[in-house]
Amino acid sequence: MNHFFIDPQNIQESRVLFPSDVSHQIVRVLRLKMDSTVMVLDNHGQQYEVRLDILDTQQCTGIIVQTLKIETEPETRLHLMIALTQREKFEWILQKSCEIGVHKITPIMSERSIQISGSDFQKKKERWERILKEAAEQSRRGMIPVLNAPLPIQEAFHDTAPIRLIAWENEQNRCLNDIFENQNSAEISLLIGPEGGFSEQEVKSGNSLGWIPFSLGKRILRMETAAIVGCALILHQCGDM
């Protein structure tokens, strides 16, 4: 069954009005037929089974058959804070972290990462949010991950999640099993560095503010691999994979 995130304003009592872009997808791309059933989500925790009753490339409409409980969202709210990198690589990370179940994503500017201005981010934000929306629909998420504006790493260190983790290749002794033996929380932040890694001073600064460096294993992972492996392992530790 196809899933679509729709603005709550388009969900009116027993009916759904599909915007033009989704209507075009329904009619021209997916070629759905009258009385086809789709799933509509409002990105606020509600999910509706909808039967299409009018097919039009400008505005399809449907009748709400039933409201269903969303059961695909992790209970753990994982915040991925990821160093900015090349566009293709960063967009791949957005897509895959959404599929895994990340709750929120914040691009980070560190000593060795790409830097970005507020205006440049605004130019990219619409595309990046569309990638997250499409990934959430494809993976049958109940919510689209929040995409925050980029932060300098020193500001990111002031995040207030109860568990704050830094994946660091120079950490030799502490792994995720060690951390989760003694701690448990529904809210976790994970920092992943750029291709050149975090500097030792950055890790020391984060550690002094309560961030915990940990190892992702004996082998050195590319940053995009570390992001996905780190997120998956954390959600697995929390029973949310």
What would you note in describing this structure?
- With 241 residues, the protein is of the alpha/beta class.
- It has helices at residues 20-29, 87-100, 118-138, 153-156, 176-182, 200-208, 223-237; strands spanning 3-5, 11-12, 15-17, 37-41, 47-54, 61-68, 77-83, 104-109, 146-147, 151-152, 163-167, 187-192, 212-214.
- Helix 3 links the parallel strand 8 (104-109) and strand 9.
- Helix 2 crosses helix 3 and helix 2 runs parallel beside helix 7 (223-237).
- The two termini are 22 Å apart.
- The model has no long low-confidence stretch (mean pLDDT 94).
Quick rundown:
The chain is α/β, with parallel strands linked by helices and 241 residues long. The protein has 7 helices and 13 strands. A hairpin with a 2-residue loop joins strand 2 and strand 3 (15-17).
